[in-house]
Amino acid sequence: MPALAGLFHLAYFIGLFFLYPHAPLWLMLILGFIYSLMVNANINGVGHNFIHNPFFRSKALNRVFGVTQSIACCFSQTMYDAVHMQHHKGNSDRQDETGDTVDWLSIYRHGHDGEAESPWSYVFLSFFRDDVGAIRKELRKRKNGDVFWGNLELAAFAVTLLVMFLFNWRYVIFFFLPFWYLGHCFSYLNGYYRHYGANPDKPIAWGVSSYGKIYNWLFFYNGYHAEHHFRPKVHWTKMERFHQSIEELQKQEGVRTIKRAHMLGFLDPDSPKRSESGPTGLAAFVSNTERKQKGA
């Protein structure tokens, strides 16, 4: 099912280009906005599950599917894999004594005084913060060809956009790029509220969960985010059962849940203020240092 959803997204991406010269502006704006939502759903649903549980037994098929994902979302699925694995190493950790975080996506990475960063800057600036050099360095450690495939995926979507640009530069500049950027902003918005108010010091409470049925169907149960960080390899089809098996322990440990989809987490009436989202200042530093020493 996730593989079919990913291929549908690719077909939608290509279809937009051919429809653009013939459809009225109002319709294209709606379809462009839907594409942005699909980028978010793909990265956090299809692409995310593909990282933890590859869809095919054949390595070749998984590589090819990674290329289709990269073209549909206009990024590198393999490089996303590296960033996401780093995310699981740090689990949105707080800054250490040098002001750094293990998790490149941590909501605390660019925060101050032990607090989470403002959602505004996290959502709209994270797109520009990826360190391709650091990502490639991480991929080289794997010694399995991931650097080659990551570069190939970047080239695949770049060539695709170049061809589109040559045929219709207005489409790429004035229509596609803004909605592409918006889609990735939606993805970071999702990511922010999947960890805002979580406890970086408790493995069972590393994430914030949302259990809406439709939301989790569309995102292949990535709404069960506290559960996912606690046991990343649990397959999306088994996530609901896994949640039931640890539900009482989650309540005892204060795992945070929200009623709305994570993308709408800012509407949560019980959302803590940033100064209340966890230990701050010296307390945050000591807590984070102790956790990293235990993990060493």
Could you give a quick summary of the protein structure above?
The protein has 296 residues and is an all-alpha fold. The chain has helices at residues 2-19, 25-52, 59-73, 77-90, 119-125, 132-142, 146-167, 169-193, 213-218, 225-230, 239-253, 281-295.
Features:
296 residues; mainly alpha; 12 helices; 0% strand; globular
Detailed description of the structure:
The chain has 296 residues and is mostly helical. It has one domain (2-200, 272-295). Helix content is 61%, strand content 0%. It is globular, with a radius of gyration of 19 Å. The model is unreliable at 279-296 (pLDDT under 50).
Main sheet makeup: none
Average pLDDT for all residues: 90
Helical stretch count?
A: 12
Give Rg in angstroms.
19 Å
Q: What amount of the residues lies in strands? A: under 5%
From the spread of the alpha carbons, the general shape counts as globular
Helix coverage percent: 55-70%
How many domains? The number is 1
Question: What class would the helix/strand composition place it in?
Answer: mainly alpha
Q: What's the total number of strands?
A: 0
The ordered H/E elements are HHHHHHHHHHHH
Low-confidence stretches: 279-296
